[in-house]
């Protein structure tokens, strides 16, 4: 057992450096993972157009193998497995993995695959690239945009699964997406509506959460830029980028200017 730990420790450290580091090798590794994420998300979004093709299930299971392998790697490098299990992204990946392994049984939950978009924003490369391109101050805005896109496509998948699935793949998905955008923006053209009480409740929830995300996005755009830097004395988390003293307690700060 001790020898196994001694062998696994270097591997764990190496994987952790690749996952969270900022070296050239780490950035290349994280970019590769991000590109694979984009390819997977594209496959999920094109699912309604491809579901009848013979190779669809093959790709489905290949993606399942990849997500399972990535979950295993994340568990290996995690210093606290319990904390890793409590991460929202871990549960998202587990749900997505379930829909991939049992597509017929868990068909009704296939819309949750859109949550995989969130994986891109959770990767360190997301903030690293923003800083490297001089957009470090746009982190909050970029995160709000990703959250809005995740919500948009998750609701679209839900509406398509429960209301438009029997419509031709392409047309049904477009109708679901059109309805979602019209509802989230409260435009309400009324040419496409969801039938029954369940449809009305879906519309209500979509409008309430959609408006909240719109407000959050607007706030991220217009509010003054602040950096995340906990005050050593009082613990206040966010400060102006050029702050010298903490506004709450007056303690002298030493905020790094990297990426500003």
From TrEMBL:
Membrane-spanning parts: 25-46, 58-77, 97-120, 141-164, 201-222
GO molecular function terms noted in the UniProt entry: voltage-gated potassium channel activity
Membrane listed as a keyword: yes
GO cellular component labels: membrane
Keywords: Membrane, Transmembrane, Transmembrane helix
SUPFAM superfamilies registered for this protein in UniProt: Voltage-gated potassium channels
Name of the protein described by the UniProt record: Ion transporter
Lineage: Bacteria, Pseudomonadati, Pseudomonadota, Alphaproteobacteria, Hyphomicrobiales
């Amino acid at each position: 057992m001790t020898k196994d730990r001694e062998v696994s420790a270097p591997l764990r450290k190496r994987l952790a450096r690749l996952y969270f580091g900022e070296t050239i090798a780490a950035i290349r590794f994280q970019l590769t993972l991000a590109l694979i994420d984009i390819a997977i998300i594209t496959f999920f979004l094109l699912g309604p157009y491809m579901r009848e093709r013979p190779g669809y299930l093959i790709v489905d299971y290949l993606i399942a193998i990849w997500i399972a392998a990535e979950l295993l790697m994340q568990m290996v490098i995690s210093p606290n497995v319990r904390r890793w299990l409590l991460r929202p992204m871990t549960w998202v990946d587990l749900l997505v993995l379930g829909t991939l392994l049992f597509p017929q049984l868990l068909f009704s939950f296939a819309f949750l695959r859109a949550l995989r978009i969130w994986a891109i924003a959770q990767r360190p490369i997301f903030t690293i690239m923003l800083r490297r391109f001089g957009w470090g101050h746009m982190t909050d805005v970029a995160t709000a945009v990703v959250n809005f896109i995740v919500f948009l496509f998750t609701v679209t998948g839900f509406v398509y699964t429960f209301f438009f699935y029997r419509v031709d793949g392409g047309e049904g998905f477009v109708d679901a997406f059109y309805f979602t955008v019209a509802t989230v923006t409260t435009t309400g053209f009324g040419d496409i509506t969801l039938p029954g009480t369940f449809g009305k409740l879906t519309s209500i929830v979509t409008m309430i959460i959609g408006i909240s995300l719109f407000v959050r996005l607007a706030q991220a755009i217009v509010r003054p830029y602040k950096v995340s830097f906990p005050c050593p004395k009082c613990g206040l988390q966010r400060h102006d980028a050029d702050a010298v003293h903490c506004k709450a307690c007056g303690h002298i700060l030493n905020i790094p200017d990297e990426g500003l």
